[in-house]
C-alpha cells in the first residue's frame, strides 16, 4: 500500500465564547468529543488548528479544562501530531507556556513570531513520505518589520514584502511538499458576521499570490465561513465548526486531506448540529399560532441542547408582556429565548431632539419618557406599567450602588 498522510484542518473554536451572556461551552464540549472520534476513526496523522482556540487571551477555567482534556485524550488514543497556532483572540504566550510537556506528546504550538524564521518550520515524516509545515500565528505589523531591514521595497506593499522575506528565510532548502498554516486576512474572503476584523497598518488583506508562490497548500483560520480562495494550489479557510450568531446559517464542516505520492484526496466531514440558533419573526395577530407551528417543525430531538431563539414580533404599537408570554409558550428544555424585540409595521420619521431641553438636569424618569416618545412617536403617552417597571429597577440599581439614600 502506498504511503499516505492524513491531515485534518480546523480553526476558530473560540472555547469559552459567550453570546448575549450565554455560554457556548456545552456545544463546544460536544464538538471536541466528535472531533476526537473523527481523528480515531479516520486514523488522522496531523491535526491542524489554525488559530482562535480560545475566545479571549485569558480564557475561563472550564474552557481550559476541555481544551487540555481533548489534547490528553487524543494523544493517549492515537499517534496524531497536533499543530496549533495562536489567533487574534488567543494569548500567544499563554498557549505556549505548557509546551515543555505538550511537545512530549507530538503537540507543537506557535504563539508568536520567533526571532528565527526556521522555528516556524515543522517537518512531518511517515514511511518515507514527508510534508513540511510552515506555521505563522497571528502577528502585528511591528513584529514582522523587525525581521526585514529592507528600506526600498519598490512598488510593493512593505508588509507583504517583509512577510515574503520571512517566509523565504523560513522555508529555504525545503524540497518536500510545503503547507502554510496561517491566521490572518488573505485574498477576497466572504465574512460570516461573527469575526473580529483586523488589518495591518491599513492593509485589509494579504495577497494570496504570496501563498501560491511559496506553498503547495495553505490552511487558514480567522474567517468563520468555510471557503476556498484558490483550488490550485489550494488555499482554504477552515471556517468555525460551530455557529456563533443567529445570522450564521448552513451546515458546518471540516476537511480531511489525504496526501499520497501521486495525488491529494479531499473529504468533507459535516459537523453535527448540537444546538439550533433560530431567528423567527411573526405578526402580532397570529404570533402564538405561528410560534407553535415553528416549534413543531423544529423537533427537540434534532439537537442535544436547547435551541437559542431570537424572536421578533411585528406590531403597530408596543404591547406589554409579550416576552414573558413567549417564554411561557416555549417548550421547556427545548427552546430558550435569548433575544426579543418589537418591529414597528409603520416606521415614521423620528423627531429631532429639542435643543432647548437641559438633559443634564432631568430626572431619570423624565429622560426615559422622552426616549420612549422618540422611539414610538405615534404613542401619545408612555405606558404607565412600563414607566413603573423602569422606575423600580432603576432605583433598585441606584440603591445597590449607594447612589440613593434610604
Task: Tell me what the structure shows.
With about 400 residues, the chain is an alpha/beta fold. It has two domains: about 5-270, Metallo-dependent phosphatases (Purple Acid Phosphatase, chain A, domain 2, 4-Layer Sandwich); about 280-400, no CATH class. The chain is about 30% helix and about 25% strand. A six-stranded mixed β-sheet has the order 6-5-4-1-13-14. Helix 9 (about 320-330) links the parallel strand 16 and strand 17. Helix 1 (about 25-40) packs parallel to helix 2 (about 60-75) and helix 10 crosses helix 11.
What labels describe this entry?
alpha/beta, 2 domains, 6-stranded mixed sheet
Instruction: Assign the CATH topology of the largest domain.
Output: Purple Acid Phosphatase, chain A, domain 2
Rounded to the nearest angstrom, the distance between the terminal CA atoms is 83 Å
Strand content: 15-25%
What class, by secondary structure content?
A: alpha/beta
Number of folding domains?
2
What's the helical proportion of residues?
Answer: 25-40%
Low-confidence stretches: none
CATH C-level of the largest domain: Alpha Beta
Task: Quickly count the helices.
Answer: 11
- Bulk shape: elongated
The major pleated sheet works out as:
6 strands, mixed
What's the average pLDDT?
87
| CATH architecture identity of the largest domain | 4-Layer Sandwich
Give the SSE order as H and E letters.
EEEHEHEHHEEEHHEHEEEEEEHEHEHH
**What is the number of beta strands?**
17
- From the alpha-carbon coordinates, what is the Rg to the nearest angstrom? 26 Å
The CATH superfamily of the largest domain appears as Metallo-dependent phosphatases
Amino acid at each position: 500500500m502506498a504511503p499516505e498522510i492524513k491531515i485534518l484542518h480546523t480553526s476558530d473554536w473560540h472555547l469559552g465564547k459567550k453570546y448575549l451572556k450565554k455560554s457556548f461551552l456545552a456545544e463546544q464540549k460536544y464538538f471536541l468529543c466528535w472531533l476526537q472520534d473523527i481523528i480515531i476513526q479516520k486514523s488522522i496523522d496531523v491535526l491542524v488548528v489554525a488559530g482562535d482556540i480560545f475566545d479571549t487571551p485569558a480564557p475561563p477555567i472550564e474552557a481550559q479544562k476541555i481544551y487540555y482534556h481533548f489534547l490528553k485524550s487524543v494523544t493517549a488514543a492515537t499517534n496524531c501530531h497536533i499543530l496549533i497556532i495562536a489567533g487574534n483572540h488567543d494569548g500567544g504566550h499563554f498557549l505556549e507556556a505548557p509546551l515543555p510537556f505538550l511537545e512530549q506528546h507530538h503537540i507543537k504550538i506557535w504563539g508568536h513570531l520567533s526571532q528565527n524564521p526556521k522555528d516556524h518550520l515543522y517537518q512531518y515524516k511517515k514511511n518515507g513520505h514527508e510534508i513540511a509545515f510552515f506555521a505563522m500565528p497571528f502577528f502585528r505589523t511591528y513584529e514582522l518589520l523587525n525581521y526585514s531591514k529592507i528600506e526600498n521595497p519598490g512598488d510593493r506593499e512593505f508588509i507583504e514584502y517583509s512577510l515574503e522575506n520571512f517566509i523565504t528565510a523560513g522555508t529555504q532548502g525545503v524540497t518536500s511538499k510545503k503547507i502554510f498554516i496561517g491566521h490572518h486576512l488573505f485574498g477576497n474572503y466572504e465574512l460570516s458576521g461573527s469575526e473580529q476584523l483586523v488589518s495591518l497598518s491599513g492593509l485589509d488583506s494579504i495577497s494570496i499570490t504570496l501563498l501560491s508562490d511559496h506553498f503547495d497548500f495553505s490552511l487558514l483560520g480567522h474567517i468563520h465561513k468555510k471557503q476556498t480562495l484558490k483550488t490550485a494550489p489550494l488555499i482554504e479557510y477552515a471556517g468555525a465548526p460551530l455557529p456563533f450568531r443567529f445570522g450564521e446559517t448552513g451546515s458546518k464542516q471540516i476537511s480531511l486531506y489525504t496526501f499520497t505520492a501521486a495525488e491529494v484526496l479531499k473529504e468533507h466531514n459535516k459537523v453535527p448540529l448540537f444546538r439550533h440558533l433560530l431567528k423567527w419573526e411573526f405578526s402580532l395577530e397570529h404570533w402564538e399560532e405561528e410560534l407553535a407551528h415553528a416549534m413543531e417543525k423544529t423537533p427537540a430531538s434534532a439537537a442535544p441542547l436547547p435551541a437559542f431563539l431570537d424572536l421578533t414580533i411585528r406590531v403597530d404599537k408596543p404591547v406589554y408582556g409579550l416576552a414573558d408570554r413567549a417564554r411561557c409558550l416555549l417548550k421547556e428544555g427545548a427552546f430558550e429565548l435569548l433575544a426579543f424585540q418589537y418591529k414597528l409595521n409603520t416606521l415614521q420619521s423620528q423627531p429631532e431632539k429639542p435643543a432647548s431641553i437641559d438633559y443634564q438636569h432631568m430626572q431619570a424618569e423624565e429622560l426615559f419618557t422622552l426616549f420612549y416618545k422618540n422611539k414610538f412617536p405615534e404613542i401619545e403617552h408612555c405606558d404607565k406599567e412600563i414607566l413603573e417597571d423602569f422606575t423600580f429597577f432603576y432605583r433598585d440599581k441606584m440603591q445597590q450602588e449607594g447612589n440613593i439614600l434610604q
